[in-house]
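User: Here's a protein and a ligand (flavin mononucleotide). What would the complex look like?
Assistant: Let me lay out the input and then the predicted complex.
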Amino acid sequence: MTYQLIYSSDSSIPMQADDLEDLLEQARERNARRGITGALVYVDGVFLQILEGEAATIKALMAKIAIDLRHEAVTVLQEGEVPAPRFSDWTMAYVGATPEQVADWLCMPGTTPVPDLFDGMRRDASQVTNVAQSVLSVLSADRADPASGPQGRA
Ligand SMILES: Cc1cc2nc3c(=O)[nH]c(=O)nc-3n(C[C@H](O)[C@H](O)[C@H](O)COP(=O)(O)O)c2cc1C
């Protein structure tokens, strides 16, 4: 069994491309060593991260992530055992999404403000599952595109 945890948080400071690259480089290297896979979405100052791996490993990582000063309002949206990892191809894929894209994943109007999109996910677990599935679809499409970068592929 694989443990999957999905959380959202607000970045404490607007993340520049360099900040995100540093964060991802460190996360990918550490995750590879710990058998953790997943994806990080960043949209307008809000993070959504999907973490998968062995339960104790994921819980230990989440305890560290929760106290990381680079973000705040860390909210676990969904966690539990899943039959198999969905993101096993990526040590930590990155998806820079637009608010319109996330609204589309949630079947909400494209004009919905980002905080409202995430409030919806906090209230409705099925929306979290839909978003995780949409993130996976985006990544799978990128993988088929030879012009896309390595994306932290495992
Ligand atoms: C949004 C966000 C996502 C992160 N994702 C990961 C991750 O996937 N893997 C990881 O090892 N650290 C991740 N980190 C970094 C951890 O919070 C922490 O800095 C890192 O595990 C090193 O902790 P340590 O120096 O106490 O060992 C993330 C941090 C932030 C802010």
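Summary: The longest strand covers residues 71-82.
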